């Protein structure tokens, strides 16, 4: 009984290691964050987006064909953290780990966002 259970566990662990997509593995970065207003437009993931939604557009280096659509991302700035959902692509994001936050998410993260404009953040998939 023990050897069957252990064998099944080992096979499951190996399979998840071998077949786990690199795009879906935990990733984190430090980069520049900007903000945008989607104004009810449709994002690259196919959902209608509002300015007040807590969403993020990933830069092209992280986008990976939309494989992260719907995933939660934690974004940190000067002791503040927001959770946002990947809903869009940001072709003009700054740097390899740059992201674009909806205005609602940016305002929650940085109350002085209008004056600050572009901020340096740390982010990771939840």
Automatic annotation (TrEMBL):
Keywords: Signal. Residues 30-122 form the RlpA-like protein double-psi beta-barrel domain. CDD domains: DPBB_RlpA_EXP_N-like. The keyword Magnesium does not apply. Residues 1-20 form the signal peptide. This is RlpA-like protein double-psi beta-barrel domain-containing protein. It comes from Mycena sanguinolenta.
């Amino acid at each position: 009984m023990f050897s069957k259970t252990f064998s099944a566990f080992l096979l499951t662990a190996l399979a998840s290691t071998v077949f786990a997509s690199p795009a879906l593995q935990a990733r984190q970065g430090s980069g520049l964050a900007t903000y945008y207003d989607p104004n009810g437009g449709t994002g690259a993931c196919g959902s209608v987006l509002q300015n007040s939604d807590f969403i993020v557009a990933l830069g092209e280096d992280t986008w990976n064909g939309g494989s992260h659509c719907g995933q939660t991302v934690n974004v940190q700035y000067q002791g503040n953290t927001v959770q946002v959902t990947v809903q869009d692509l940001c072709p003009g994001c700054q740097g390899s780990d740059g992201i674009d936050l909806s205005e609602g998410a940016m305002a929650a993260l940085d109350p002085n966002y209008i004056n600050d404009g572009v901020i340096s953040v740390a982010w990771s998939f939840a």
